Amino acid sequence: MPVTVIIRDETAGGKILTEIPITLNSELTTVKEIILARLQVEVEAYNEKLPEYFMGLVQPSDAEQTLNGYRLKERRKVDLEKQCFIALDAFKKNGYFVLIDDIQAESLEQMISINNNTNISFVKLTPLVGG
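Given the sequence above, the corresponding structure tokens read:
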């Protein structure tokens, strides 16, 4: 049964920066599936409108980080596959943490039971470069 949850980007101090609703196919999922669902939502939203700034988990290649997000040198569609590769690699290298109900996820294959009230937060630790 599909479950919709709100993904939050937070600072290390707990300040909420953004909130993104995502829908997952099942109440039992993995950390990897959560990350991929998040990336799909943010890349599709950007590619649909091509705004000036990309507000996402990882920095697209040929983009600079600004206070308002990542600014691509020329407006173009962001490659979802590249974003996924870089984001999963960054998770493995502790580039960011995923907190599920305030408990840090330990691996991409970790099974998580979620519901509409599950709190999922991403805490970025280093600038990330992607596709």
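The helical segments are 31-49, 80-92. Try to locate this feature in the token string yourself.
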